[in-house]
Amino acid sequence: MKINDTSRIGAVNPYQRTNEAQRTQETKKPEARKDEVTISPEAMQMLQAANKTTDTDRTARIQELKQQVASGTYSVDANKIAEKLLPFLSE
C-alpha cells in the first residue's frame, strides 16, 4: 500500500491539541476569589446606636458581678440552672 498524502500524518489524533490545551488549563491554579461585604452608612449608624445602649448596661452588670464574686456574695440559683437544662436533657 502506498501513501502519497503526507499531510495526514499530523491528523492521526485531531483531538491532541484540545487535550493539551485542557491539560495546561487544569494545571494552572485558579485565582483565589475574595468575598467582600459592604455595610451601608445607615446600617453602621444603627449598629453604633445599638452598641451604645447595650454597652453601658452590660458594663454595669459585669462590674456588679465582679464585685459580688470578689466579695464572695455571688450565689447561683440551682433551680434556674435546672430549668434551663431540662429541655436539653429531655430530648
What does this structure look like?
The chain has 91 residues and is an all-alpha fold. 60% of the residues lie in helices and 0% in strands. The protein contains three helices and no strands. The protein starts with 15 loop residues before the first helix and ends with a helix.
Keywords:
91 residues, mainly alpha, 60% helix
Average predicted confidence as pLDDT? 79
Q: Structural class of the secondary elements?
A: mainly alpha
Major sheet size, sense and barrel closure: none
Radius of gyration: 36 Å
Looking at how many chains there are and whether they match, the oligomeric state comes to single chain
Strand content: under 5%
Set out the fold topology.
Blueprint: H1 16-27, H2 41-71, H3 78-89
Tell me briefly what this model is.
60% of the residues lie in helices and 0% in strands. With 91 residues, the protein is mostly helical.
